[in-house]
Write a structure and sequence with these properties.
With 177 residues, this protein is mainly α. Helices cover 77% and strands 0% of the residues. The chain is built from five helices and no strands. The protein binds hydroxy diiron-OXO moiety (OFO).
Amino acid sequence: MMISKKMEAALNQQIEFEGYASFFYLSMATWCDHKGLHGCSNFLNRQSEEERMHMLKIFQYLSDVDGFAETPGIKEPPRQFDSVQGIFKQVYEHEQKVTQSINKLITLANKENDYATQTFLQWYVNEQREEEALMRTVLDRIRLIGDGPQCLYFIDKEIEALNKAAVAAETTGGKAA
Ligand code: OFO
């Protein structure tokens, strides 16, 4: 089975997008770690690893369909952030953009009658639904705890708990949020 050049190029763009997400979240994790927010840092490090896995899945898929996966040049992510609340808002917004990008890939796969790629992308549709739901949960919890300086300790504990739930869900194949 051979993939079209157009579909191959679009999937290579997605590789870059997922790779950037991995580095973006890693940068956020490092910032949190530096501020002593280890629960948030653990959460974001796990998200960063997940994004790398999303990227590598596309490498494997392109190889399976006789395409060529291009190792991306990753643009530099921001290294400074205003607040933990701002970080998770940015993660949520980024995930919404990734969802739109996956939707566009499916539209292209449909136009090209590329049934293999449509099926491959279904995994990403489910993943994005779960990721967006998880990020909304994070933002809801942060809002409920409040945003005074003394709230940071409780936010960090809560995000750590959500991280542990996400890890447990990964091992049992369930959902974190
Ligand atoms: Fe791979 O972008 Fe979300 O999970």
